[in-house]
Amino acid sequence: MSTRSSTLTGRIMSAPSIIALFLWMIVPLGMTIYFSFLRYNLLSPGMEEWVGTLNYEFFLTDPAFFASLANTLLLVGSVLVITVVGGVLLGLMLDQPIFGRGILRLLVIAPFFIMPTVNALVWKNLLMHPVSGMFAWIANSLGFQSIDWFSEAPLTAIIIMVSWQWLPFAVLILLTALQSLDRDQKEAAQMDGAGPVSIFFYITLPHLSRAITVVVLIETIFLLTVFAEIFVTTGGGPGLATTNIAFLVYTQALLQYDIGGASAGGIVAVVLANIVAIFLIRLIGKNLDR
Amino acid sequence: MGAIRLEKVKKTFGTLDVIPGVDLDINDGEFVVFVGPSGCGKSTLLRLIAGLEDVTDGKILINGTDVANEAPAKRGLSMVFQSYALYPHMTVYNNIAFGLKMAGESKAVIDEKVQNAAKILNLTDYLERRPGALSGGQRQRVAIGRAIVRNPAAFLFDEPLSNLDAALRVNMRLEITGLHQELKTTMIYVTHDQVEAMTMADKIVVLQAGRVEQVGKPMELYNNPANKFVAGFIGSPKMNFLGGDYARKYDCHEVGIRPEHVAVSTESGDLPATVKIAEHLGAETYLHVNADGFGPMTVRATGEVPLGEHDKIWLTPERDRIHRFDANGIALGKL
């Protein structure tokens, strides 16, 4: 793409897909913004009217909003910490020439291919169920009281499930990064008198910084919108204990039939996601420039 | 102080005998070059000395103590890797300081030693840069700097110049030789390039298939190779080998004649030959010829020689420079 004519040809050729993508994005966004300024409730059809920023005022002053904002941040933050730390450790283990490495790798990657609803059902009914779950059985056979996860520690339960789902992604990215670490560097550090711990902190971890950045950025995008796990297990409760922004928008729209309020919530969620994205890129995006 | 002694050092990978058993003495302050074709085990031998590979059997004595089962860092050796193996996320300063930091030296001591090494290696202006922003030669110097500051008993170099271009290689060769004269520390240097071996070494160790073929001063190896392999490996262009009638005349299985020890004449001589290719370098001319009845030979003539393709010439080897070999390739001594 060096000459002027070939650049022009390139633009013309790629225009249809770019235009399609643009429309795909701008039409729903425009409609959502438009709806967010209307009083638009499915229970009173034909009564739509312009209400200005009233929907935003309601949404942002709703105590449920702050609770769900806190839940969202807690969920994203905890899962990020668990998957990155766990991913590095598992990656290190799978990078060693251990027995059955091929099968082990397959097992570690497997959760990523399970759809979130199924994941949530498995955890809810087979593992965390207070009567018939495996955790309850383990607790009981050790003489402890079983925990009713979804009423006693609902957000923790959600965090565990989502972490389990996303750990493979982190392992996959971090393992490939580990494999690209030059063996000579480790040997040079060994000659320099660095033990395994020093090699990890001075050589391995800096080498992984870029991969960790990628994991954090991509996971954040998806974790801000966790929905299926909450919907299937706790339904946002008890109370608001596990309601995140995505789930709050859902309750507005489909439980209260308030399209206007839900649209306002959706726009707020978009703005929040962008704030998080800008913050993250400022904080760690410079790692990608190297 | 760094005298290194290998006693029956053995290394096997599974069933593969990489090093079947090497005995070697390296004196304090010596510059020793391990040379041999690729896959001859020279790098493995160096890694055994460094401690990056475990010996299967045998002893490695550094200043009289057996270190065969010690960790690499405990052996007091420094290594310069072929890929340099610099830490890409650290500045040059921190790269050089890393070993001292691991040894728990104080900041003041580290700073003094790093600045000192940087001065020796002309790196003072680059201390705050990262390796990615340096040229190949500068990276090489950082790698050497990292080795120097630890004040090792011996330096180990693993083909350190093979990633540099030809001009830089000649420079770095001189720099490393200069460094050796300055520091007077034992150095072990691995290369497949016999020119590096000849120019730098106090003592050359020629290896083939994990065995030591010959140990000696460069000119010893050049003048009195112990066998056909050493004779062919040391010296460039390669030695010519002639068998048959010509060898029988000298009462041996094969004779070896270096290209530079053959007189060229257009009128008369021992061996008639036809020039195939003449490489004119100005100071010397390499003639690739076809000797009648013996096949291809290489001859080096001094200065400019007005010869070209198809020219008939006569070759006369210098009689006292002829090497004789028996059927097993062992040298028989000169005439």
Automatic annotation (TrEMBL), chain A:
<keyword id="KW-0813">Transport</keyword>
<keyword id="KW-0812">Transmembrane</keyword>
<dbReference type="GO" id="GO:0055085">
    <property type="term" value="P:transmembrane transport"/>
</dbReference>
<dbReference type="GO" id="GO:0005886">
    <property type="term" value="C:plasma membrane"/>
</dbReference>
<feature type="transmembrane region" description="Helical">
    <location>
        <begin position="262"/>
        <end position="284"/>
    </location>
</feature>
<dbReference type="Pfam" id="PF00528">
    <property type="entry name" value="BPD_transp_1"/>
</dbReference>
<dbReference type="InterPro" id="IPR035906">
    <property type="entry name" value="MetI-like_sf"/>
</dbReference>
<keyword id="KW-1003">Cell membrane</keyword>
<feature type="transmembrane region" description="Helical">
    <location>
        <begin position="64"/>
        <end position="90"/>
    </location>
</feature>
<feature type="transmembrane region" description="Helical">
    <location>
        <begin position="199"/>
        <end position="224"/>
    </location>
</feature>
<keyword id="KW-0472">Membrane</keyword>
<feature type="transmembrane region" description="Helical">
    <location>
        <begin position="12"/>
        <end position="37"/>
    </location>
</feature>
<keyword id="KW-1133">Transmembrane helix</keyword>
<feature type="domain" description="ABC transmembrane type-1">
    <location>
        <begin position="69"/>
        <end position="280"/>
    </location>
</feature>
<feature type="transmembrane region" description="Helical">
    <location>
        <begin position="155"/>
        <end position="178"/>
    </location>
</feature>
<feature type="transmembrane region" description="Helical">
    <location>
        <begin position="102"/>
        <end position="123"/>
    </location>
</feature>
<dbReference type="InterPro" id="IPR000515">
    <property type="entry name" value="MetI-like"/>
</dbReference>
<comment type="similarity">
    <text>Belongs to the binding-protein-dependent transport system permease family.</text>
</comment>
<protein>
    <submittedName>
        <fullName>Binding-protein-dependent transport systems inner membrane component</fullName>
    </submittedName>
</protein>
